[in-house]
């Protein structure tokens, strides 16, 4: 028997040329970052436009990001820009579920910059813990 309480709405194809997919899952927007996801101004803008549209369409401020963070170090200015882009969705709660995640100065800076924009960001190693944090701290 199918569980009627869990519904997914696909907002984009599973595989995108930009390295990410988006869907609405019951009470949050889910972002999947592929191994080939690259960070640059254009992709970052495209990603945040899709996130903003999905949040507005579904009336949600919960976003779960799973998958792979791009490897390598980024310029501090890129980390600051990425943190500022989170303001595309006011009062956003953004949880990253990244296996084997290890905090770095860059991820900590990203969290601080996002917080300065009114956005809560937290990194986790499991999607269960990330979803629990989102659901326990935000309205549906």
Report on the architecture of this protein.
The chain is α/β, with parallel strands linked by helices. The protein has one domain (8-137): Transcription Regulator spoIIAA, CATH 3.30.750. Helices cover 36% and strands 22% of the residues. It has four helices and six strands; from the N terminus they run βββαβαβαβα. It has helices at residues 41-58, 76-85, 105-116, 127-137, and strands at residues 8-10, 20-25, 28-33, 62-67, 93-97, 120-124. It has a six-stranded mixed beta sheet with strand order 1-2-3-4-5-6, sandwiched between helices.
Keywords summarizing the entry:
140 residues, six-stranded mixed beta sheet, Transcription Regulator spoIIAA, alpha/beta, disordered N terminus, 6 strands, globular
Radius of gyration: 14 Å
- What kind of oligomer do you see? single chain
Largest sheet: 6 strands, mixed
Which fold name fills CATH's third level, the topology?
Answer: Transcription Regulator spoIIAA
Number of H/I helices: 4
Per DSSP E runs of 2 or more residues, the count of β-strands stands at: 6
**Shape label:** globular
Q: What is the domain total for the residues?
A: 1
Q: CATH first level: which class?
A: Alpha Beta
The unreliable regions are: 1-16
CATH architecture: 2-Layer Sandwich
The neighbouring-strand order within the major sheet is 1-2-3-4-5-6
Overall mean pLDDT score?
A: 85
Query: How much of the polypeptide forms β-strand, as a percent range?
Result: 15-25%
Name the helix and strand elements from N-terminus to C-terminus, one letter apiece. EEEHEHEHEH
CATH superfamily: STAS domain
Question: How far apart, in Å, are the first and last alpha carbons?
Answer: 26 Å
Structural class: alpha/beta
Helix content: 25-40%
